[in-house]
Design goal:
This protein is of the alpha+beta class. The chain contains three helices and six strands; from the N terminus they run E-E-E-H-H-E-E-E-H. A three-stranded antiparallel beta sheet has the order 1-2-3. The longest helix is centred in the last third of the chain and has 19 residues. Bound molecules: zinc ion.
């Protein structure tokens, strides 16, 4: 597996509203829970199969209007993480690549702003 997409450790902090992953290549990804919940990759949240794989990095940048908590995160094989949220939603299976791609999309947004 590509070390960029290979998680070494995963940390959920509901009190800090932050989800973090350390990758085998040494990079650390930190994503706010609100954006992660709103960018849930399941077909219901995406609004149909044609939107699968799409997400909005802007949702990680906004001031969250409410808190979401992760009650459970269970690995699916070695390719994804199924996240259970405190609002009862649990059909989102986040591929490891997705977390890293979201992180990089947020970084691109940040860079765009500072130009
Ligand atoms: Zn969903």
């Amino acid at each position: 597996m590509d070390p960029r997409y290979k998680p070494v450790s995963v940390d959920v902090s509901n009190s800090d509203q932050m989800f973090s992953i350390e990758w085998a290549d040494g990079h650390k990804t930190e994503l706010p829970l609100f954006g992660l919940r709103k960018n849930c990759p399941c077909v219901t949240c995406r609004g149909g199969h044609s939107n699968m794989g799409k997400y909005e990095p802007e949702l990680f940048k906004i001031d969250p209007p409410r808190e979401y908590k992760i009650t459970k995160a269970e690995p699916i094989g070695n390719h994804a993480l199924k996240i259970h949220w405190d609002d009862g939603h649990n059909s989102g299976m986040y591929k490891w690549e997705l977390f890293r791609d979201m992180d990089e999309a947020v970084q691109r947004l940040n860079n765009k702003k500072s130009d």
